[in-house]
Amino acid sequence: MNAPQFTTALPTAAPHPDLLAAGAVRDLPATGVQSHAANLTTLADGRLACVWFGGTQEGLSDICVWFSTLTPGASAWSPPVRLSHDSARSEQNPILFTAPDGRLWLIHTAQRAGHQDTAVVRCRTSTDGGATWDEPRDLLPGSGLFVRQPPLVRADGAWLLPVFRCRALPGLRWSGDDDDSVLFISHDQGATWTVREVPHSLGAVHMNVVPGSQGPDHLLAFYRSRWADWVYRSESHDGGETWSAPQPTPVPNNNSSVQVVRLASGRLALVCNPVSAAHATDRRVSLYDEIESEDDAANPLPEAGAANAGGRRLAFWGAPRAPMALLLSDDDGLSWPMRRDVETGDGYCLTNNSAEQRNRELSYPSVHQGPDGRLQLAYTWHRQHIRHVVCDEAWAATLPADAGLPLPTQD
Fold first, then answer.
1. Does residue 403 belong to any structural domain of this protein?
2. What are the TM regions of this chain, as residue ranges (predicted)?
């Protein structure tokens, strides 16, 4: 059987026939007209939990965090429960983290309108598996901070929380052009944090830290690219205290989220849209070019495709967000020779408009290996709801990836 090819021209989304035949595709209940940015984990009692953000449209103040669970053996997810309530901010990118003491943490961002440079990172915790929660509070000092990936607990018990910094270029509204990554480290269960820089990480965001294969101090990180070129990768050999500069992998990236997890087999699993700006027929100015707030007139958006006065690159928005693919690696993410397209479609994302159902992206995936070894995937379906897919590692491992994947080159 031939490897699936990159696809950017299908009129409608289509899950893989194997998954449909196995009854492995189900949708979570919608929460308003828009749902986006799912994250999965297994709770202590065995339930699969998912958080995402939903409301009218990303960046508007009715966007908040939602939580649902799937009991083992159940055919449907529980009715969603709202976990955030700030009526003045758009609350986004939720993640779940079970701490070593059993406490369940919700971590998410909260920003004013489309200004990610105003975002703060907040949290709340639960001691009963999400039935009740304490009051929300700011987790990290400062603003312009964003999260997407869950913390990793280091061998010595320290918590490693990857963060990307959102900064607007002088005189312009935020558009992702000056974003980079840092790692926050806590030795007191999240009470205080220190920051470790990721050198030369401009444009490399959504840092995802996973264990490496060369001992407990070896860590790997994978990144989304604001330039919509490649998934990037860096390493640490001292438990995250210092990092190599992110380098491109052979996997294309479209300036949309990716997630990587270390499997029990030792492989890495990556979920992403393996397309790039090279696959785009058009681009948009910014992620938030459809919404404005009162102070936006004084800070315009950059022109699409232009470089600012300093000659810097600007973030590329609008590359197709499809297919949704699962890739596997046996060499710590240097190569990804196994691939399955979980769902295909044209991935149209030149608008975030869910009310008129104009967006057709398959994006922002989460991948999690459950206690039974199966892979649990969740991702955005056309920004209308979250789709949940279950598959076996062997299903992806049997199919070699497209041999035509080019090796990346540095600009």
1. no
2. none
